[in-house]
Design goal:
The longest helix is centred in the middle third of the chain and has 7 residues, at 54-60. The relative contact order is 0.28. It contains 2 helices and 9 strands, in the order βββαββββββα. The protein is elongated, with a radius of gyration of 19 Å. The chain has 171 residues and is mainly β.
Length: 171
């Protein structure tokens, strides 16, 4: 059984503090699918609250149910430019208590900006190289999006900054 998004106002436009349900496919410049909602539930988000990457949110502004949007985003409009300063080699002994450190492993690191997910990119006997960049940093992103439904957000959703209920957070 498929759970469809609640029927929104088909004339309502995507705007600040609307709940938007979208189906999307994200590809890289070679046409390889990176992520897609095809075959699943649409993604629900609260527009204008930073729930999507900035460039995609801007591209969806003013659209309505049924609209198809194709957009190519630069790294700055997506997950940012690749920042070599977020790559560090640390002494392996700094990871005490973690016995099996391997390339591709994700770790939580504390920085001056709070907790950040880093990925292990190299392991030697003495050092571990970690990368704090988002996996899609530095890449152009190609989105194909269909607006499935748009509705006004509830006061609670606006206060919490995200969608509640079907397709969103619960609680």
């Amino acid at each position: 059984m498929t759970c469809l998004p609640p029927a929104g106002d088909s004339l309502m436009q995507v705007a600040q503090d609307t709940v938007v349900f979208i189906h999307y496919t994200l590809t890289d410049d070679a046409g390889k699918t990176i992520d897609s909602s095809a075959g699943g539930e649409p993604l629900a988000y609260l527009h204008g609250n930073g729930n999507l990457i900035p460039g995609l949110e801007r591209a969806l502004e003013g659209k309505k149910v049924g609209d198809l949007v194709s957009v190519r985003l630069s790294p700055a409009e997506g997950y940012g430019e690749y920042d070599q300063e977020l790559v560090q080699s640390i002494p392996r002994r700094a990871l005490r208590g973690i016995d099996d450190v391997y390339v591709g492993m994700q770790l939580q690191a504390q920085s001056e900006y709070g907790s950040r997910t880093v990925v292990v990119t190299d392991v030697t006997d003495d050092t571990v190289t970690i990368d704090g960049n988002h996996p899609l940093a530095g890449q152009h992103l190609n989105f194909e999006v269909r607006i499935e439904s748009v509705r006004p957000a509830t006061d609670e959703e606006i206060a919490h900054g995200h969608v509640h209920g079907a397709g969103g957070y619960h609680g």
